[in-house]
Amino acid sequence: MKDEQRPTLTTRQGHPIRDNQSMRTVGERGPATLENYQFIEKITHFDRERIPERVVHARGTGAHGFFEAYGKIGNDPATRYTKARVLTETGVQTPVFVRFSTVIGSKDSPETARDPRGFAVKFKTADGNWDLVGNNLKIFFIRDAIKFPDMIHAFKPDPVTNQQEAWRFYDFVANTPEALHMVTWVKSPWGIPANYREMEGSGVNTYKLVNDQGVAHLVKFHWEPKQGVRNLTSQQAAEIQAHDTGHATRDLYDAIKRGDCPEWELRVQIMADGDHPELDFDPLDDTKRWPEDKFPLLPVGRMVLNKNPDNVFAETEQSAFGTGVLVEGIDFSDDKMLQGRTLSYSDTQRYRLGANYLQLPVNAPHQDLMARTNQRDGQMAFYVDGDGENTHINYEPSLVGGYQEAPKPEHEYHQHVEGHLGRYATSRTADDYKQAGDRYRTFADWEREDLINNIGNDLKQCPEPIQLRMVWHFWHCDEDYGRRLAQFAGIDLDKAKALPPLPGQPAPHQARSASTYSDGRLEEGEPATSEEVASNK
C-alpha cells in the first residue's frame, strides 16, 4: 500500500498521532513529563494486554540469596559516590530474591529460545527495597519507552496466525536502526545463554549514584558470574530442546540443592553527570555500551544464591519488580527507557497482582523494616501497614498522631533542568551502526558464523523490501557483515547498497570491514556442549 493511501494512526480517543517515536521531554535529553498523555495511554493499555500471565518475561525461575558490599568502588571508598548503605557498608548480608526469565515466550515456552534473558534482583536493604531490573545483555533494542509496545508486538506471534514470523521482527528492525546493535548480540550465540548460572546480567538503564554531599555521577550496573560465561549455538540449543524445555530452571535448582551456589560480582561503570558531547553517543541511550577502556568495570560487591523457593507460585510467580524502587543514594537519570519503565512496571504489578502486591511476603520489605503507610483497602488487602498504633489517622500531617516525614538530608541532589517541552529524537546516532559493527568485528569466527546463519535464515523468510533494507543496514555496520548475509540469503547486494537512507535519517558513515582485521574478543563466552548443559556442568 502506498504511503498516501495508509490510514492515520490515532489514539483510542481518535486523536491523530503526529509523532509515535519520541516521548515529550524537556529538551532533547529529558526529563520526561507526567503529562505524556499519548505515551501513558499507550503503555498502560500495553501493560494490560495479558491476563494474568506477564506480558513479557512470563517464563522464569527464581532463588533467594544475599548481597555483600566491598565498601569500595574500584580503589575509592564507596561513600565517595553514594550514600546507599547497601553499597557502602561492609559485613552486612542483604537478603535478595532474583528472578531469571526469557522475554518473549509464554510461561511454558522453551528456555532454549533465542531471546534476551531477564535478570531482576530485589535487595531487601535496611533502608527499604531496591530493585535492579535488567537483562543478561548490557544494551536493548530501543532507546525511547514509547516504542516498547510496538517492539513487543512485532516480536510476539502474529495476531492472526499466532505464529512468530521473521518478517515482522525484521520489519520493525529495518525501520529502527538503533536496534542493530542488540540484534547483532541476540542473533549470535550470546542470544542463547547455556543456563542462568553462567550468564551475565546488567541493569541496562543509566542511573545516578548520589553521595551525602548531593553530588551525582551517572552509573551502569553489571553482574559478572564467578562461574564464567557460556553460550549455545542454534544447533546445540535444538539438541537440548528436543528432550528438555526447562533445562535452565532445572540447572539452577539442582545446583543450589547440591550446594553449588552460584555467585556474581556486582560491577559498575561511572561517568561524570552531564551530556558528554565528546562521545559520539548519548550515555543515556540504552542501545549503546559505554566503552570499557574509558569507563572500566569497577567491583562493588558480591551476590550468592543459596536457597530455592519453597513455593514457585507464591515466590517466583508473585515476585514483582520495578525500576522505580530505589534507595537513597541511587537515583534516576533522564534515560527515556528508565523513565517509561518506572511507570510501566509498577502499573503492571498493580494490574496483574492487585493493589496490595507489596503486602505479599516475597515483595514486602525486610522483616526488620516495617512498612508504615497511610494507604488503605484495595484489592486483596489483608492487613494495615504499620505497627497497629494510631490506625484512626490515615493521613498526614496531623497534630495528634500518625506518621511524620523523615528528616531531610543536609545536602540534597538538585538537578538543573532547562529546555523547551516537545518530542525529541536522540541526535547522536552514529553509533547505531558503529557499535554494531564493532561488535561484529570482536566476535570469534564461530560466533560470526552462527550469527550469519541465524540472520541469513531469517531473511530468507522475509519479503524483498525487508531483505534489501536489512542488508543495507548491516553493510553500513560492516562491509563483511552485509556481504556475507547477502550471499547466504541470496540477496542482491548491489541493489541493497543502492537504497537511499531511511526518511528523516542521515546516511551512516561507511564502517570498516571485519575481513581486514584479525580475530579478537572483548568477552569470554565459550559455547557449551549439549552434554555439558544436560549434566549441569
Detailed description of the structure:
- The chain is α+β, with helices and mostly antiparallel strands.
- 27% of the residues lie in helices and 17% in strands.
- It has two domains: 3-359, Catalase HpII,  Chain A, domain 1, CATH 2.40.180; 431-531, Hemocyanin, N-terminal domain, CATH 1.20.1370.
- The protein is built from 15 helices and 16 strands.
- The strands form four sheets. Strands 2, 5, 6, 7, 8, 9, 10, 12, 13 and 14 form a ten-stranded antiparallel beta sheet that branches. Strands 1-15 form a two-stranded antiparallel ribbon. The chain has a two-stranded antiparallel sheet with strand order 3-4.
- Strand 6 and strand 7 (128-135) form a beta hairpin.
- The longest helix is centred in the middle third of the chain and has 18 residues, at 336-353.
- Residues 516-524 and 533-537 have low confidence and may be disordered.
